[in-house]
């Protein structure tokens, strides 16, 4: 879900509760800088590591806002635990001792019997995965009980990283069309209506990253938040990840387009924060991120004479039956050639 980058000092991103009616003391410049800098850093981490890992692999009429928030909390409680467990598993594996009793498990659910048996679920995991799931569950309970901003951010970072890692665009043209459409969408819903900001501040769910501007004054109990929607991370992130895979397909041992688009994202998000701080109004981050993330790599491609290669690059789907068939035929051909050599 996409939300605008918001500044709580102007009232557009404050939580919609009676306690927020009274004016809050202004945050210090140091606190504001720390909050914005932390949001920028948290936005960069999922994109960078998610891109690397991708290479390897309204308020209702019936229910009140409280019930909707409860439903969303339970929904993201389960998804957040699974996403966080999947995120930390590769890192946690390095900390287990060599003699750790790691057992393998398989969760298998089938339908039918005999020749008509069909696998519905076939999931393999081990003891290390269970440990990561347990640690993630602790964070989930913390989030469910306290709705603390740190727990919210842990889930938000996990969702973002998994989104960048697992959601793949197959070519640059599709990515440009997607970003262009969402560019218009984001601008309309932030400048044309107050829906985006209202959703961001009303629903208690890890659909955004938040960081308190009054952290230096109130510590971990600070409550004057700046926020960044996960859509402003994941949407440009999957395009940047595509450019990384394009870099690898060129087989030049350079990641020119990835680093260019990554630097463009930093520039675009920094510009968003600057404009928002100057005009004291929530900004549609994609308004600045989309031109930067598309424009910078295209300019580099023009300079290197690789525009045709960039827009003709098409990522094959490993699950495509045609691709699998071609792979099998290639293997059979190689095997037959090897057999002919042995016969000779």
Automatic annotation (TrEMBL):
It is found in: Endoplasmic reticulum membrane; Membrane. Keywords: Endoplasmic reticulum, Hydrolase, Membrane, Transmembrane, Transmembrane helix. It comes from the Eukaryota. GO terms for molecular function: aspartic endopeptidase activity, intramembrane cleaving. Residues 1-12 have a biased composition (Polar residues). InterPro entries: Peptidase_A22B_SPP (IPR007369), Preselin/SPP (IPR006639), Presenilin_C (IPR042524). Its main location: endoplasmic reticulum. GO terms for cellular component: cytoplasmic side of endoplasmic reticulum membrane; lumenal side of endoplasmic reticulum membrane. The keyword Cell membrane does not apply. Pfam families: Peptidase_A22B. GO terms for biological process: membrane protein proteolysis; signal peptide processing. The chain crosses the membrane at residues 33-55, 67-88, 166-191, 225-244, 256-279, 285-303. Residues 1-26, 312-344 are annotated as: Disordered. It is a multi-pass membrane protein. Belongs to the peptidase A22B family. This is Histocompatibility minor 13.
């Amino acid at each position: 879900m996409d939300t605008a980058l918001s500044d709580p000092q102007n009232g557009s991103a404050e939580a919609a509760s009676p306690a927020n009616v009274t004016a809050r003391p202004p945050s210090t410049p140091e606190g504001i800088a720390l909050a914005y800098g932390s949001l920028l850093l948290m936005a960069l981490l999922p994109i960078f590591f998610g891109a690397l890992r991708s290479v390897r692999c309204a308020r209702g009429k019936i229910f009140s806002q409280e019930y909707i928030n409860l439903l969303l909390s339970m929904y993201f409680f389960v998804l957040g635990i699974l996403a966080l467990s999947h995120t930390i598993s590769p890192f946690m594996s390095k900390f287990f001792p060599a003699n750790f009793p790691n057992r393998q498990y398989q969760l298998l659910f089938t339908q039918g019997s005999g020749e008509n048996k069909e696998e519905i679920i076939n999931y393999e995991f081990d003891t290390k995965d269970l440990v990561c799931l347990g640690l993630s569950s602790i964070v989930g309970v913390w989030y469910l009980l306290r709705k603390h901003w740190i727990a919210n951010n842990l889930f938000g970072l996990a969702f973002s990283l998994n989104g960048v890692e697992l959601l793949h665009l197959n070519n640059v043209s599709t990515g440009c069309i997607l970003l262009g459409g969402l560019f218009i969408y984001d601008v309309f819903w932030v400048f044309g209506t107050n829906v985006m900001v209202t959703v961001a501040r009303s629903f208690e769910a890890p659909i955004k990253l938040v960081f308190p501007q009054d952290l230096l004054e109130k510590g971990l109990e600070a409550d004057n938040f700046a926020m960044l929607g996960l859509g402003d991370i994941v949407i440009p992130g999957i395009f940047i990840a595509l450019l990384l895979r394009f870099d690898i397909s060129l087989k030049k041992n350079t990641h020119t387009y990835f680093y260019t688009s990554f630097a463009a994202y930093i520039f675009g998000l920094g510009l968003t924060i600057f404009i928002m701080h100057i005009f004291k109004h929530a900004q549609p981050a994609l308004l600045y991120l989309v031109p930067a993330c598309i424009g910078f790599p295209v300019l580099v491609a023009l300079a290197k004479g690789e525009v045709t290669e960039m827009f003709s690059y098409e990522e094959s789907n490993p699950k495509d039956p045609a691709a699998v068939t071609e792979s099998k035929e290639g293997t059979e051909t190689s095997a037959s050639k090897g057999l002919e050599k042995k016969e000779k």
